[in-house]
Amino acid sequence: MRRTLAFLAAVALAVLGVTSASAGTSLTLTAPAQNSYQPTGTPTFSGADLQDGDTVTVNVYQGSNTPVTSFSTQGANSKWSAAPQSPLPSGTYTAQATETQANGQTVQSSPVSFSVAPAKPSLGLSLAATDAVHHTATFSGGAAPSQQVNVTVYGGSDTTASPVGTFTATTDGSGHFNVTATGLSNGQYTAVASQGGNAFSPTLSLNTTSVLTMATPAANGSLSQTATTFSGGVDTNPGVQQHVLVKLSRGRTTAGAGTTHNATITNGNWQLNWPTRLPPGTYTATATQPVTNEAPLTVTHTFTVTPPGRLVGNPSISRNGTVTARLACQTATGKCSGNLLILTKRAFQPVKGGPKGSVSLLFRRYSISAGKTGTVTGHIGGAQLQTLKHAGAQRLSVTNVYAVGSKLTKQSVTTAPVRIK
Asked: Whole-model pTM above 0.90?
């Protein structure tokens, strides 16, 4: 039954004088390529013919069935080529070639769809903030109308490597398109747009490293008890507000109200000089940058504040009673000044019948230049020295008293056992 129907169809075509290329003839229309984009309104139409010398006519339709133009040529060397006399306006077209043979019969090629956009398409690139990490890129540009556009994103500048992803959109009736790429981590990218196998050139680069950062204090770093400066980089992407709030909390948690201050933003960087000196201890700082209609951006660092003059090692006591302690000044500028008091942790009664209590080994004022290490010395003798010699190694209490603004602050540490040498 199927063979009978195919035979009857072939006979009907022969009677009408039309033969389809799909029936096994060699008439083809290979250019323009199917679904291709043509940057000019006068593309070259070409293919293979059935018989040299036959007339090949190309019929071009707007869309799929509205005639626009028709032009003819003769084949040679089993090939044919022709171009329209007048440029085709921007739009989507269908072309079909017809070959008129010497016996009057005609053969048709398969139809080919293509698009014309005389103005060279452009690819615009902009970033859009959509969530807390918001590493999304919005691409826009122009191409052939009502056609799919592919935007392929590559990591770095190598467009021969495996892409990060391909994102698609369809141009509107005027040829405009917008497409959003998602899931981009920090880094440099290259985007290439294409339509119908034609890549738009040149490619455009995208850098998503513009994010909120905190440079100082360093994460898990240590600061001396001087004026504390918080600083970092701001996120300048669209939708991210240019405002940074710094919250400071005691301990290793962001829980609780804490204390907040606004930072100053200059040339893509933020900075806040904390208005008060911080007592020794552990702190957690959180910088927050609001995002329009989205969760804010945050970065958190935990750090430790130490006194300006830090004890280096254990104090020493010589056999002649000289007491020596070494302090390091951890400030960047100026000097570290204060008073150092060293007592024994154990209570003694150096003089029989006299008072009993901790033995004072040293009480001296010190002043050490920034970034330097200084030595503070004192002296004990008499009954106190003899008592310590007989008592053996002793733990010492070292108290550093210094000014923080207009207030006095102290920090005490207990040393490992110290033996007179």
From this structure: no
